[in-house]
Amino acid sequence: MEKKSHLLILLTAFAVNGVLAQSKINNFYTTLKGSDEIGTANTTNPNHENDFKNDVVKNKDYCFANAKKYKNDFDGDNTDSVESMDDNKENRLFDEITMKFNDEDIIAMQESQAGNRSTCFEKIRDNTESSLVRPLLMIEGYEEGPKLLPVKAKISAFIEQKKKEGVLTTASVYINNTNSSNHIEINPEEYYSPASVLKVAVLLQYLKKADDDPTYLQKKIFFKEKHESVYNPTITNKTITTGQSYTIDELLEYLIKYSDNEAYWLLNDQLQHGEFQSLCSELGIPVLVDQIKRDNNEHYFVTSVNSTSRFFRVLFNGTLVNHKLSDYALNLLLKSEFTDGLVRGIDKNVKVAHKFGERYEAGVTQLHEFGIVYLKKEPYIIGVMTKGEDKAQLADVIAGISKITFDELNK
User: Fold this and answer.
1) What are the structural domains of the chain?
2) Which among 29, 80, 182, 311 could disulfide-bond with 49, CB atoms 3.0 to 4.6 Å apart, if both were Cys?
3) Can you give the pTM of this predicted structure?
4) What is the distance between the alpha carbons of residues 103 and 119, in angstroms, rounded to a whole number?
């Protein structure tokens, strides 16, 4: 059993690397400043970058040290130094060790080590400075759940097949079993433009205002003129009309149900500079931007599948705003009219609170969707982010991944 305890330490150590990888070190780490669009940036923040690098290095050293310690204990091999262990050796070592134990062994070890899990989780708290209370928003588990590993294997094989067929360039997946907080991630280091999925972040910002003022959603905003944008969505439904006033409640329905960009810009224009950054800070989401060269010299917000999932997780947990407002938001997401992705792979009788996003730029099509699937036995949160050439094919990929997940978890 002593050997197995060492395995648990190793598994959690490597999982720490997996979570930190979502915020991989970039030379373009920036803060959002002086921009009309959520997600644009034109100034760097080297202090944040250095702090982040130090955190990553310390955790990576911890992971490698535990890996080397277990390898020495397990087979007496002292040939690999921690400093010289590259990514390939790290992966081979991890595979070599985990093959020696089955899922039941790992579950038993997790249960027996329940008192030593301080290194297995990251606690995400609301750090609003105006309050003495620091509510727990969510817990980020560092270890992937053994029960979800068969799902991960099937999805990974599906993704590789679609790559071979030329349908897909890359994809990332996040799945969270809400009953146990077990999760899996596939390709967590890839960064994407969240596009219209970011409308959920706007929704959250308005919910926070309504949390302070119950009448806030009934306030009216006049829609004078359409916003000029370089991005023209191809998935469009209903849109607001110029020359009319709308309550914030009505605009939020257009924003989420119809994914209306005009409602997005009108709502976004009412927000104060820095509110988006504050929300990201609360949820532990790194504020990073792309490196695409544009005529306006602006750079746009990019994020990982894990980070994006946090907008949905705090709604399901009811931890960012009160339960009534969280329920209000989830009911809006249930009304989303996009049906080509996640919901296509799920029993039509199962409720899904979901939001999609699309983006085409520099010859690359991106299509993403996140949702909360209210499976009776085991509700789960799923996020799929994709890059490729054809939007319809990417929708098929999302639907396929959704079906694999639903079929496995509904057994």
Assistant:
1) 195-409 (3.40.710.10)
2) 29
3) 0.70
4) 21
